[in-house]
Amino acid sequence: MESIIGWQVIFLCGIGLWILISSFFNVTRNLRSLTQPWVSRRVISGIPIILKIQKYQHRYLDALFSGLSCIVSVPFYTAFLPLLFWTGHCKLARQMTLLMAFCDYIGNCIKDVVSAPRPSSPPVRRVTATKDEEENAMEYGLPSSHTLNTVCLSGYLLHYILAYNGSSDAFTQIFGFTMVCLVVGLTGFGRIYLGMHSLIDIIAGLAFGLGILAIWLFVSEDIDNFIVSGQNVVSFWSALGFLLLFAYPTPEFPTPSFEFHTAFDGVALGIVIGVHQTYHQFHHENVARVFSPQLTISALAGRLLLGIPTILIVKFCSKALAKWILPILANALGIPVRSTTYVPALNSIASDKKSDEIKQSGYIQKLLFSSEQTSFDVDSGIRLIQYAGLAWSVVDLVPSMFSHLAL
């Protein structure tokens, strides 16, 4: 049995201690009282800037910036990252997946701590061309997740390409940096043009994105080495994913942000478990990469035709299994649970608002029952297992099928 590493215990205990302290001292509420009024004033004062930009509205600009928002959205990366794994760029894929989960967690935590409004519509014209954008509009505004994610992921992608190719050519570096700045600039400007964010949201997304990217570039190799060859990886990451659900702050009013975090929490857990268990089989540095004789375009097409339906089936089965097992387990442990979405039989008689508040309650309220909480919403656990199963299938089950079929 692997020995328990001291830093892992200290790290997990530190998160647990933060949960207790944050709850006892009402950290979220105090931070919100300090930041929300200031940010709200900046959002209101920034509306004239948005209206000036929107004077130049055109259907082509609507299509351009709506399309750009889709390209840098969470659903896009959810579809893009499996493709990276299956084309042989395994290190880049796992690094970007974990970075995406990190960005999503930090960004959504800040959103729900500050709970600052988006620009009011009207007078601002808000363009929500997709269902994903409609859900984004239900979140709080600061920081802009699209800007933050674009800074981190495009910045890390540039870093990886330059390091992978060993390029020290000044022209290549300047060109790559210019393209990253262009994408980030268009993304931020597009969020203002679409009426989704004010200038202060974009500035905050840029600032937090640069900070997160700097931290990630510093620790990414250590994290990758731990996932690949560390001790107690599965148990540590499982405990970490569980604690992060409880450490999430309570917003002023319920938003979809917690659901997005739970999904990516599950994705990160599934990726870590799968890669750790199958690194030497499918994810080492010498695996076949696309366009090589070992992985032709026809073989990649076969991988996609087999892999995509498989992970969708696993996602469905994981959800069904979790919906069946978690209520039974909770009942066996004597834990009252409710479900606001997935299990109609567990619907509470409480009002929808109260259900949402309990579902997203943060810190210690999720650990201990209070007079206002008589049950827990099981949907978060179902969502966590569902996306963990999906991610595990991407890096373990599907590559095993590729191996057996010589794809």
UniProtKB/TrEMBL annotation:
Organism superkingdom: Eukaryota
InterPro entries: PAP2/HPO, PAP2/HPO_sf
SUPFAM superfamilies reported in the protein's UniProt record: Acid phosphatase/Vanadium-dependent haloperoxidase
GO biological process: phospholipid dephosphorylation
Keywords noted in UniProt: Endoplasmic reticulum, Hydrolase, Membrane, Transmembrane, Transmembrane helix
Gene3D superfamilies: Phosphatidic acid phosphatase type 2/haloperoxidase
Protein name according to UniProt: Phosphatidic acid phosphatase type 2/haloperoxidase domain-containing protein
